[in-house]
Amino acid sequence: MDLSELKKLREEKLLEHKRKKRAYYLKSKMNKKQEEIKKVNSIDYEVELFGGNFAQKLKDIAKKQKLHIESREEKINKKIEEYRSKKQKYYEEHKKTRLEYDKEYRDKKKEKLKEYRKEYYRKNKEKILLQQKKNRLNKKLEN
Q1: Interior CA angle at 138 toward 137 and 139, to 5°?
Q2: 100 and 135: one domain?
Q3: What is the CA radius of gyration of the chain?
Q4: From CA 119, how far away is CA 113, in angstroms rounded?
């Protein structure tokens, strides 16, 4: 056997070994997940819903949610204010460059629109002229 053939054979064997190892790993992982799922106790909804204290549980959940929102409200408002101040500061610092960019952008858009209109009119010149003639005739007939 040649040296290159031996290297190819070695690589093939190594890849096959890695595939087997990966398959074994995935299989054992799936088995562990299935065991964990089996361990989780199922909820008895009959007891939960009709146990007598269902309304109280709903009230407790609502209270917890409200407290959580209230505790986060101050942090959220602070972050919003921080963002607004950063944004305002950024706009004040970069006002000139932003205005220049906006002007360039508007000019480019105007040029593109002019070109588009010229092209559109050139392509549809006959249709547009016919439509204008019809409109003129309709106005004359109305008067």
Answers
A1: 90
A2: yes
A3: 37
A4: 10
Q: What is the DSSP string of 30-41?
A: HHHHHHHHHHSP
Give the model confidence (pLDDT) of 21-67 as tens digits: 999 999 999 988 888 776 666 777 777 777 767 778 889 889 999 99
Considering the domain boundaries, does residue 76 fall inside one? yes
Instruction: Kindly report the pTM of this predicted structure.
Output: 0.32
Q: DSSP letter at 67?
A: H
Say how far apart CA 11 and CA 22 lie, in whole Å: 16
Gap between the Cα atoms of 53 and 62, Å rounded: 14
CB 28 within 8 A of CB 21: no
The C-alpha atoms of residue 105 and residue 97 are separated, in whole angstroms, by 12
Helix runs in 1-143, H state only: 3-39, 45-50, 54-93, 95-123, 125-142
Same-domain status, 98 and 118: yes
Token pair belonging to 135: 């409109």
128: containing domain: 94-143
Tokens of residue 56, six digits: 């109280």
Same domain, 1 and 32: yes
